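### Sample
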Amino acid sequence: MEILGTTLRICVDDLDAAAAVYERLTGATPQRFERGGVSVAAVGCFLLMSGPAAELDILRKVTATIAVKDVDQAHATLAEVGARIVAGPVPTPAGRNLIAVHPDGSVFEYVDRKVTAGS
């Protein structure tokens, strides 16, 4: 499995204020979108999320987002090392993702940029 990079996930109360801070820190323009009732701003290597407490409680359990070349390959490698896949692989607007619990209990999202039909 080829890891291309990581994104740090941060849940915030005020997305506009947080996006301004991280824009200043990184020099990157926030890319905003909505997903499942959660407002998101991707700023450099940071993924800022704001929304209903119930949704954020779930999102806080995911340590980081890991960009990989191919989610299917990541799925196979994760299975080989004893990780438990709890969601996906599923298509998203930017590619595909899955959520895995590693044998040590850490939870990570794996994403690729392969856009498939119907996503």
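The helical segments are 15-26, 53-59, 71-80. This sample (VOC family protein) is used throughout the tutorial notebook.
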